[in-house]
Every structure is written in structure tokens, then in C-alpha cells.
Design goal:
Blueprint: E1 3-4, H1 5-15, E2 20-23, H2 30-38, E3 44-47, H3 51-65, E4 69-73, H4 77-91, E5 96-101, H5 121-127, E6 131-134, H6 141-152, E7 160-164, H7 166-170, E8 172-173, H8 190-202, E9 206-210, H9 217-230, E10 234-236, E11 251-252, H10 254-263, E12 266-270, E13 289-294, E14 308-311, H11 314-324, H12 336-346, H13 350-362, E15 368-370, H14 375-383, E16 392-393, H15 404-414, E17 420-425, H16 426-429, H17 436-441, E18 447-452, H18 457-467, H19 480-487, E19 490-493, H20 497-507, E20 514-519, H21 527-530
Parallel strand pairs: 2-3, 2-4, 4-5, 5-7, 6-7, 9-10, 9-12, 10-11, 12-13, 13-14, 15-16, 15-17, 17-18, 18-20, 19-20
Antiparallel strand pairs: 1-8
Length: 536
């Protein structure tokens, strides 16, 4: 029996294990969305209020569900709207599959001014993804979808893009789905492992820096096993928070671990770009011997200068190194001084710490925390304890203000009952507050905290300190509690850290979205601490 390209697309997505697609329907996607409608018992379609919301939700879903997130958008303005989310997913190694419409095939590249046409859409998508393709016939759809999922799941996980014109989605074919093949990602260069083992075996003061490449329980367990064998402290980057539990005696934040890292003789960098916020290597070559483990060869190139680079996924490389080292555990260094220096430094942002401690104490260990670009979020990079991989979500180096709320919604869909808390400033929350409608419509169990000071607070502070005046930073806000309630989301207002903790605990007993507004006064800036050695 013949099927449309749209029907075949839906069936191939199901074959790939996709359970949820986030998107906005539109005329170029009619047959794609109808394919999903015919398979609604096997795959959900969550229709968002804006394409940026769809793509951010796919990103959030991918970060916590241990499978790729999928979004579907119309071409032109739809893809452009999704662009900020795709760039965020690219920066944070998030496996997002973006399916974009196109204009009719015969008109592509001709500049005829058709609906949603933009010149060079394929090039635009290429700049936001690690791989992209375009289907020229319905027969090509299954193979291209298979290749998209192969690419998004191999090497360094980053977004992929697939364009499908409307005539291809409408055309009929007798082609069938393509079954997924095995994963060949366990290959590793034995010589580089041997050289890494040689350096680590002779180290007297080893240290490990763990980034976002340590992204699941298996790689975390492998990291912990190697650290314990070496007696090496593990300093986690912002994207690497949770790579090792902050309760582990060898775990150090980047603030606590800065001095130890500087004095280490051998440093193993696992799954991190190893670049500071200014684009310089975290450690300059000299008295340190540097080893990299990274799935992406680009992340071990200049300006970094590693003595050894093991190109492999973190779990595979860590296990290979551990199994090749002498199986005698070394004595761990005393790290009390590192942690005391950290506590002393953090006293300067005590107000933020009170709010963060209230949030952390109210959440279970496996609860997922969505950081944002707000004063509480900046402090969280340094002072929010994380106990499991995949439970601390950031926008990475993109720093995309407003990503947090829609990303949190996607995370909540993929979290399978675990609590998800998204913290927001009132400025950033404005980027996607319309997705309160999506939260209510699909009963997405997200706790959304909005810290309100009626300003772009960080920009306001910078302007005042640099120029002694402000412009463009004041915000005209609604009553967020009343706004949430108008959308059908439960809302409340709290004024103390204790009240916030209680509200988050209470939300654990409900299966519905909750918004909590927190009036928030001016607080000390955490930026001086964030300017300390920063690991990418």
C-alpha cells in the first residue's frame, strides 16, 4: 500500500524510538502532522505557542530523557524562531533532531518570494547543526531520518537538521521504514590510552576536570572509579555539574578546585572544551602534563596543548584507562582547605545562597534544576550542589536568556515523574511566558520560579557601575501569579527562602504545573567569583 511522505516520516520516527515531537503545525507541514495524527497512539505531538518553545522543549527533553529530542517547525520564520534554541543545543552537546519544512522543491533557490521562503535556508540550518540533509523524494525520507538519528547519537552529540519540502511530504510511495543498525562508538586508540596511563601512573598530584561529556550514570561511575583509584580530586565545570556527586570526598567545584588544579602535576580533562570565558586554555602548558578525553577532535586542538588526547566517549576511555592502571588505590589528598576557601569566598553572596539552599533542600536528589541567566542562576553555577548526572541544566556558552522556562517544560516531559524546577528572572521569563498555555494544556509538571525585580538586573548593575546611568533596563511586568492562573496554571507568591522551599515541597505532591513568584531585591553580584578561573 502506498503511503505519503508524511506518513512514512511518522513511521520512521516511531521506528527510531521517538515518543514525543514538539512543534507548531503549519501549511508546509500538513502531511507531516497528519502522519503523526494517524499514529497518535504511538507518538505524541505537543503543539507549542512559538517555535522557539518547541525547539527549547526538544532540547530540555533530550537533556534528561536519555534519547534525542525532536522538534518540527515550518520553514523560514519558523526555523529562524527555533534558531536560538538550536544554537543552545549545539553549545551544550544536546541531541536534538530538528525537522524543518521547506518551500516546494521546484522553487528552492529561485527567489520567487513564496510563502516562508528565505534564501539559503539549508546553509542557515547547517550553521546550527553537526549534520543536515534535505529529502528530494518520499523514498529518501526513511534513510535520511535514520542518518539523522545515527549522527545525533554518535561522536559528539549535537543537533541535526532535516528539511522536507511539502510536495515530498504529500507524494506517495511504496517505500518502507529503515531499521536502526548497531552502534560502533566503542572504538578507541590503544596507543593514546597507553600514553595516558603512563602519565597518570607516574603522577604525584593528579587532578581531573570533568565537563558535559560525562553525561550519564555509566560515564559518571567510570569517572568515580578512576578518581578513587588515582586519589585524584574531580573539578567539575558548569556543564559538568553532577558528573560526580558533590557529596563525594573527591568532588570539588571550580571555585574550590582552582588552587589544587593550578598545583597539579598531571591534569586529565574529560568531556570538556577546556577553554576559559576569554577563549584561553584553562591551564597553559609548562609544569603541567595535560591529558584529554573527548569525543570531538576539534576540542583538543589549539589553543589547547595536550600531551595526550584520547578521542572517544567518556565512558569508553575512562574504563580503558582504569583497567590499564595498577589496581592499587592511592591515598586521597586532604581537601578541607580548598573547601574552606570556597566557603569564605561564597559569604559575599550570602543572600543568593539562602535561596539556593532552600531550593536544594526542597528537591529530591534526582530532581532536575534548570539554571537561568539571573542573579540566583549565576550563583548556582558556584554554589548549587548536584548529586546525579543530568540533573543540572544550563545554556552553556550561548548564554541564551529566556531559554530556561521552555527548556524546563521539555525536561519535565522527559523526566518521567522526577521533579523539575526552573528558576527565572522576570526579564528572561518574558521570552516564553506564552508557553504557560502549553504547560496547562498538556498538564506538564514543572515548577517555575520567577524572581521579580522589575528590571534586567544584571545589565542594570553593569550600566550603573560602568557609566553611572541606566537605559532600557526597567520592565513593565504583569502580576505573574494572576497571569499563570489565567492560563490555568496554579500560582502563588512567596517572600522568604523558607516559603520558597515549602512551596517546592508542596509541588512534589501535585501532578500539575506550578508557578511561584518571588519579589527579589538587589543582591551582591556574583560576577567577581565567576571571573575566577572558569572552565568551559
Amino acid at each position: 500500500m502506498k503511503k505519503t511522505g508524511g506518513e512514512l516520516l511518522a513511521e520512521q520516527l516511531i521506528t527510531e524510538g521517538v515518543e514525543t515531537v514538539f512543534g507548531v503545525p503549519g501549511i508546509q507541514l500538513d502531511h507531516a502532522v497528519d502522519g503523526l495524527a494517524q499514529n497518535r497512539e504511538s507518538i505524541d505531538f505537543i503543539s507549542t505557542r512559538h517555535e522557539q518553545g518547541a525547539a527549547y522543549m526538544a532540547d530540555g527533553y533530550a537533556r534528561v530523557a536519555d534519547r534525542p529530542g525532536v522538534c518540527m517547525v515550518v520553514p523560514g520564520p519558523g526555523l529562524l524562531n527555533a534558531g536560538a534554541a538550536l544554537s543552545t543545543a549545539y553549545a551544550t552537546n544536546s541531541p536534538v533532531v530538528c525537522i524543518s519544512g521547506q518551500i516546494p522543491s521546484p522553487a528552492i533557490g529561485r527567489g520567487l518570494g513564496l510563502l516562508h521562503e528565505i534564501q539559503g535556508q539549508t546553509d542557515l540550518l547547517r550553521s546550527l547543526t553537526k549534520w543536515n540533509g534535505i529529502a528530494k523524494s518520499p523514498e529518501e525520507i526513511p534513510g535520511l531520518v535514520r542518518e539523522a538519528f545515527k549522527q545525533v547519537s554518535s561522536g559528539r552529540p549535537r543537533p541535526v537538521g532535516l528539511e522536507i519540502p511539502p510536495d515530498v511530504l504529500q507524494a506517495k510511495t511504496t517505500a518502507g521504514v529503515v531499521n536502526p543498525a548497531g552502534d560502533n562508538t566503542s572504538e578507541i586508540d590503544v596507543e593514546s590510552v597507553d600514553r595516558a596511563v603512563e602519565l597518570l601512573a607516574s603522577a604525584e598530584r593528579p587532578a581531573i576536570v570533568a565537563g558535559g561529556g560525562v553525561r550519564d550514570a555509566a560515564s559518571s561511575a567510570a569517572l568515580q572509579a578512576l578518581a578513587e583509584l588515582l586519589g585524584a580530586p574531580v573539578i567539575t565545570t558548569r556543564n559538568g555539574k553532577g558528573a560526580i556527586s558533590d557529596r563525594h570526598p573527591l568532588a570539588l567545584s571550580r571555585l574550590a578546585g582552582a588552587e589544587f588544579l593550578e598545583n597539579a602535576d598531571v591534569v586529565l580533562a574529560v568531556g570538556t572544551r577546556f577553554i576559559t570565558m576569554t577563549g584561553q586554555p584553562v591551564i597553559r602548558p609548562g609544569r603541567h602534563r595535560l591529558i584529554a578525553i573527548n569525543a570531538d577532535p576539534a576540542d583538543v586542538r589549539a589553543p589547547r596543548q595536550f600531551d595526550v588526547a584520547v578521542i572517544a566517549k567518556a565512558e569508553v576511555a575512562l574504563e580503558a584507562i582504569t583497567n590499564s592502571l595498577p589496581q592499587v588505590k592511592r591515598e586521597a589528598p586532604v581537601l578541607d582547605g580548598c573547601r574552606k576557601r570556597e566557603r569564605d569566598a561564597l559569604r559575599g553572596i550570602a543572600p543568593q545562597l539562602e535561596w539556593l539552599q532552600a531550593i536544594r533542600s526542597a528537591m529530591p536528589d534526582d530532581g532536575i534544576f534548570i539554571e537561568e541567566l539571573t542573579q540566583i542562576g549565576y550563583a548556582a553555577r558556584l554554589a548549587f550542589p548536584v548529586y546525579q548526572t543530568g540533573t543540572y541544566v544550563t545554556p552553556g556558552y550561548q548564554g541564551t536568556l529566556g531559554y530556561g522556562f521552555p527548556t524546563g517544560l521539555g525536561a519535565a516531559v522527559g523526566a518521567e515523574g522526577r521533579q523539575v524546577v526552573s528558576i527565572n528572572g522576570d526579564g528572561g521569563f518574558g521570552w516564553a511566558l506564552q508557553e504557560l498555555s502549553t504547560a496547562a494544556k498538556y498538564n506538564i509538571r514543572l515548577v517555575t520560579v520567577v524572581f521579580r525585580n522589575d528590571a534586567f538586573g544584571n545589565v542594570q548593575r553593569i550600566q550603573s557601575e560602568m557609566f553611572g546611568r541606566n537605559i532600557g533596563v526597567d520592565l513593565q511586568n504583569p502580576d505573574f501569579v494572576a497571569l499563570a492562573q489565567q492560563f490555568g496554571v496554579a500560582g502563588e507568591r512567596v517572600t522568604t527562602p523558607e516559603g520558597l522551599g515549602d512551596a517546592i515541597r508542596n509541588a512534589r505532591g501535585t501532578d500539575a504545573p506550578v508557578l511561584i513568584e518571588v519579589p527579589f531585591d538587589d543582591v551582591p553580584s556574583p560576577w567577581k567569583l565567576l571571573a575566577e578561573p572558569s572552565i568551559g
